[in-house]
UniProtKB/TrEMBL annotation:
SUPFAM superfamilies assigned: P-loop containing nucleoside triphosphate hydrolases (SSF52540)
Annotated family: Belongs to the thymidylate kinase family.
InterPro entries xref list: P-loop_NTPase (IPR027417), Thymidylate_kin-like_dom (IPR039430), Thymidylate_kinase (IPR018094)
Name of one Pfam family that matches: Thymidylate_kin
Database matches in PANTHER family: THYMIDYLATE KINASE, UMP-CMP KINASE 2, MITOCHONDRIAL
Species this protein is from: Paenibacillus algorifonticola
GO biological process: dTDP biosynthetic process; dTTP biosynthetic process; dUDP biosynthetic process
Name of the protein described by the UniProt record: Thymidylate kinase
């Protein structure tokens, strides 16, 4: 069986790190090969052109930032495809749907955005942890001590949250991120087991 690609999506502070950690331990307990990654990579995040926009809002053409994002993800996916073909499961902290949502809110046409990415693999399971925008802002301030350029606009997370709902795959697992973390984890594991079973894979006795 080829590996599963699991995308963990959501606004900042939605609990992605917590759920990725819990799911990682579950896979490890079952002695299954797993690779954790994130999108975009640090190479994109640290590009001076990207940092100039994210930190200060300076950008000559938003398409340039979108192309940098697409190039980063396409290159990253080449590595992931090899791991998946080798039967290694992958959990990705964010996926292309974050780019779709954010660049849509930044004023780009969604079809133009998707054309940049081409036919990138659809995850076997896409999880979207949904929280209220005001909670996101509070958690970012508590975590970072400050807000970056876009985060200072009170409407940004409301708009991104709505954009996510229009770009996520139809079978995405949308979960209230304010629920008990263990309950969320149990629901995610149940879906993982179902997908593995449907693909003719092994069964798990661990709950």
């Amino acid at each position: 069986m080829s590996g599963l690609l699991i995308a963990m999506c959501g606004l900042d502070g939605a609990g992605k790190t917590t759920q990725i950690g819990m799911l990682t331990k579950w896979f490890e307990h079952n002695n299954v090969q797993l690779y954790n990654t994130k999108q975009p990579t640090d190479q994109y995040r640290n590009d001076p052109r990207v940092r100039s926009y994210l930190d200060n809002g300076h950008v000559h053409d938003m398409r340039v930032i979108a192309m940098l994002s697409a190039a980063d993800r396409i290159t990253h996916m080449y590595d992931l495809e090899q791991r998946l073909d080798a039967g290694i499961h992958i959990i990705s902290d964010r996926y292309i749907y974050s780019s779709y949502a954010y660049f849509k809110v930044r004023g780009m046409d969604i079809n133009d955005i998707k054309n940049l990415y081409g036919s990138i693999r659809k995850p076997d399971l896409t999880v979207f942890l949904d929280i209220k925008p005001e909670i996101t802002i509070k958690r970012i301030q508590a975590r970072d001590g400050h807000l970056k350029y876009e985060e200072k606009d009170p409407s940004i997370f409301m708009n991104v949250r709505e954009a996510f709902r229009t770009v996520l795959p139809e079978d995405a697992l949308i979960i209230d991120g304010e629920r008990d973390p263990q309950d969320i984890h149990s629901e995610i594991v149940l879906n993982v087991k179902t997908i593995i079973s449907a693909k003719g894979g092994y069964s798990y006795g661990v709950k």
